[in-house]
Amino acid sequence: MAENEALDIVVLAGGISHERDISLRSGRRVADGLNGLGHRVTLRDPDASLLAFLNESRPAVVWPALHGASGEDGALRGLLELTGVPFVGSRADASRLAWSKPTAKTVVERAGVATPRSVTLPQETFRELGAGSVLETVLAGFDLPLVVKPAQGGSAQGVTIVATAEELPRAMVDAYTYSDVALIEQKVEGVEVSVAVIDVGEGPEALPAVEIEPVDGAYTFDARYNAGETRFYVPARLDSAVGAAVAEAATTAHTALGLRHLSRIDLIVDAAGTPWFLEANVLPGLTETSIMPQAIAAAGRETGEVYAALASAAIADA
Question: What is the 3-state secondary structure (H, E, C) of 57-112?
Answer without folding.
Answer: HCCCEEEECCCCHHHHCCHHHHHHHHHCCCECCCCHHHHHHHHCHHHHHHHHHHCC
